């Protein structure tokens, strides 16, 4: 670590979303800047910090939730005009709070993200991109994917206006005059776009849902260039980023805000791939970061990272030393008379607020207990920030739940077989209840998490198995009166461990196929595929035929989906995948009363291929389990002291040295070997099922025994007896 920053808390506003914070430019380079911030209550406020006090310049009345906040100005002038997007409208304010623009975009969707460049306005809903110039429509684009962010800039060489939209379907699209000129495929879903300006050059960076930061070559339309930051240590999603010279050496740093609450500062060199990126500062905010900006806020001449969290907490990470009043000899702080006066004033304000709160609670309690006709019992609106994302490396899902207030407990229910795994950051106490037979289906999981005091964010790790669709329900109960709960539902697809890839060309891979023919439309078959697989776009491609590629995160098998009106072809090297697809598609077609014809072509080479694909992982994990058992035995003998270790063989010494690796691996991959066993057993059952052969219990037991004493030749002979 090379950078030392001190945290200073400023204020708390309402619940915030992405792109809710901007710093207004100052007249001089090292002067303090004003802060513009917006929240989901529709309040825009501009304030500055003077002598540790907040000076409010203006504040709007509550209204519709503000989705995005941007600052801009005409060419050659300061970017001190404030623009907010709420609903379908865009409003413009001066830095003094005067409303100078109210523009109705006429969009059919609610505005989710916005970018302003001079007199150019770019608005995006969920699927619609619109470009306006001087509030006149220039063009629009309908995107099949969900749009998550938009930026625009003038090309360095050609000076042509170019805009980029980041889409959930692992795609970043380049547009000119509202027409797509290039589609850039990326490895994982992008979450944020950022322009890195340095030495008269512009470099486009993007953050992903799995915590990476990449570079795009937009000037030459070459697409993805390289990864700037990998996610080896932190796979939490990138929620915001900024570029600023925090070290004062003339080189811009990259500052990231993550969903898990981390704020990170990196040394980067976007022009030289050989110059390694490294972290110089990290701070945990304990709740997800929605926006951050760098500038001079609290004190003139001191650079600062201003941060806004999901619950609306605003704080700064400043280069100014904040412990100047600390007396090392006495171990206490020595305050000036002005500071003491401020502390006493704050104490009196807190006491006054506590008194008002107590009176309001008594008033509410009286109104609820009254026997008259005007009884009152109001449940406050509960805003929950949630996400369910697949971790490819461990083939498990991370469920993140966050509330603006402290969470009391969370009830997790699922109608299919899923497992809850331990998470290192999770301090909640979990208890399991006996599943019950519900009227709408079997509840296979019923668990309660009791959170510690002041916990407003929790992360759960969920292990699913492929085979059937499920609904995971989370009842989040915050610490509020009257007692209430918010229900969140998450769909778990039948092929939940698959993730989308852009293309796959491997001529050496054997494929089996599943063909459907019937009277279904393109929209219907697209919807059916979406019931089976995650990450399927809400809308099908605007062409006669759609092709989607998927890969399994557990055993790396591939699925190719090709469909159009009345026809659908599915190819995979894993027969289990095709068997699950067949069952789900048959159920969906039966619901719609659509007649379909199904034909399956089984390639026996797929059995050998899949087993060979699983074999390296299986042998690796068998060895790791053996090493873990030996390590546990050495621990039981208490052979850890230096005197005893020197008598051990090199093998056992190496085992003790690998303690952190072994423990970390089994924390990340619990029951991984049994999942591989299940994959092979299911392959055998589904192979025989598609062949119309009944599977006996004796045969299954023989395969289980063969897996315990693994031999490829013996296993293949059981799958395909002569």
TrEMBL record:
Listed GO biological process terms: cilium assembly; intracellular protein localization
Protein source organism: Sitophilus oryzae
One Pfam match: BBS7_GAE
BBS7 GAE domain sequence ranges: 380-490
Domain (BBS7 helical hairpin) ranges: 604-719
Residues in the signal sequence: none
Record's protein name: Bardet-Biedl syndrome 7 protein homolog
Ranges in a coiled coil: 336-370
Keywords tagged on the record: Coiled coil
Alphabetized PANTHER family for the sequence: BARDET-BIEDL SYNDROME 7 PROTEIN
InterPro entries: BBS7_GAE_dom (IPR056334), BBS7_hairpin (IPR056335), BBS7_pf_dom (IPR056333), Beta-prop_BBS7 (IPR056332), WD40_repeat_dom_sf (IPR036322)
Residue ranges annotated for the BBS7 platform domain, each copy included: 498-600
Lineage: superkingdom: Eukaryota
Residues in BBS7 beta-propeller domain copies: 21-319
CC terms in the record's Gene Ontology section: axoneme; BBSome; ciliary basal body; membrane; neuron projection
Gene name linked to the record: LOC115875831
């Amino acid at each position: 670590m090379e950078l030392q920053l001190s945290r200073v808390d400023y204020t708390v506003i309402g619940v915030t979303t992405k792109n809710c914070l901007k710093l207004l430019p100052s007249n001089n380079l090292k002067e303090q800047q004003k802060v513009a911030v917006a929240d989901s209550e529709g309040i825009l406020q501009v304030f500055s910090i003077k002598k540790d006090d907040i000076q409010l310049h203006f504040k709007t009345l509550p209204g519709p939730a503000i989705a995005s906040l941007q600052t801009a100005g005409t060419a050659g002038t300061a970017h001190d005009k404030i623009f907010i997007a709420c609903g379908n409208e865009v409003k413009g304010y001066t830095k003094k709070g005067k409303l100078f623009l109210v523009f109705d975009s006429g969009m059919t969707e609610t505005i989710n993200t916005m970018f302003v460049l001079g007199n150019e306005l770019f608005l995006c809903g969920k699927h619609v991109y619109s470009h306006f110039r001087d509030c006149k429509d220039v063009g629009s684009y309908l995107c099949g994917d969900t749009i998550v962010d938009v930026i625009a800039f003038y090309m360095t060489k050609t000076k042509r206006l170019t805009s980029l939209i980041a889409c959930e379907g692992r795609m970043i699209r380049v547009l000119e005059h509202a027409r797509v000129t290039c589609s850039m495929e990326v490895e994982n879903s992008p979450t944020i776009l950022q322009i890195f300006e340095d030495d008269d050059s512009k470099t486009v960076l993007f953050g992903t849902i799995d915590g990476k930061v990449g570079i795009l070559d937009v000037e030459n339309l070459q697409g993805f260039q390289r990864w700037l930051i990998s996610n080896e240590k932190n796979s939490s999603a990138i929620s915001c980023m900024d570029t600023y010279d925090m070290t004062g050496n003339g080189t811009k740093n990259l500052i990231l805000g993550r969903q898990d609450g981390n704020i990170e500062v990196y040394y980067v060199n976007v022009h030289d791939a050989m110059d390694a990126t490294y972290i110089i500062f990290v701070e945990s905010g304990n709740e997800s970061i929605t926006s951050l900006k760098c500038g001079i806020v609290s004190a003139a001449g001191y650079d600062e990272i201003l941060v806004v969290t999901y619950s609306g907490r605003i704080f700064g990470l400043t280069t100014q030393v904040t412990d100047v009043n600390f007396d090392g000899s006495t171990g206490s702080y020595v305050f000036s008379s002005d500071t003491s006066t401020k502390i006493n004033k704050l104490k009196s304000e807190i006491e006054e607020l506590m008194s008002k709160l107590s009176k309001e609670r008594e008033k509410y309690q009286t109104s609820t207990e009254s026997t008259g006709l005007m009884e009152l019992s109001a449940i406050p609106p509960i805003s929950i920030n949630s996400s369910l994302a697949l971790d490819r490396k461990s083939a498990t899902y991370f469920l993140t739940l966050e509330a603006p207030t402290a969470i009391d407990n969370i009830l997790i229910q699922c109608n299919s077989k899923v497992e809850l795994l331990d998470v290192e950051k999770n301090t909640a106490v979990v208890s399991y209840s006996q599943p019950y037979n519900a009227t709408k289906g079997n509840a296979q999981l019923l668990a309660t998490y009791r959170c510690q005091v002041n916990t407003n964010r929790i992360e759960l790790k969920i292990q699913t198995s492929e085979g059937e669709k499920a609904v995971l329900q989370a009842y989040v109960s915050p610490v509020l009166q009257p007692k209430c709960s918010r229900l969140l539902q998450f769909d778990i697809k039948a092929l939940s461990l698959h993730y989308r890839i852009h293309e796959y060309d491997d001529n050496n891979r054997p494929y089996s196929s599943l063909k459907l023919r019937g009277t279904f439309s393109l929209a219907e078959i697209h919807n059916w595929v979406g019931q089976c697989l995650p990450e399927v776009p809400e809308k099908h491609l605007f062409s006669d035929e759609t092709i989607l590629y998927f890969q399994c995160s557990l055993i790396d098998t591939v699925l190719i989906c090709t469909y159009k009106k009345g026809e659908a072809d599915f190819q995979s090297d894993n027969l289990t995948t095709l068997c699950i697809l067949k069952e789900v598609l048959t159920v969906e077609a039966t619901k719609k009363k659509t007649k379909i014809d199904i034909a399956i072509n089984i390639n026996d080479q797929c059995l050998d291929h899949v087993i060979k694909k699983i074999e390296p992982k299986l042998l690796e994990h068998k060895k790791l389990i053996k090493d873990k058992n030996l390590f546990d035995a050495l621990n039981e003998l208490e052979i850890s002291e230096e005197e005893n270790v020197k008598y051990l063989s090199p093998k056992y010494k190496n085992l003790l040295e690998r303690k952190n690796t072994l423990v970390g691996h089994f924390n990340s991959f619990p029951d991984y070997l049994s999942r591989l066993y299940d994959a092979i057993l299911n392959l055998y059952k589904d192979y025989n099922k598609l062949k119309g052969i009944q599977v006996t219990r004796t045969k299954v037991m023989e395969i289980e025994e063969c897996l315990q004493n693994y031999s490829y030749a013996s296993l293949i002979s059981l799958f395909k007896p002569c």
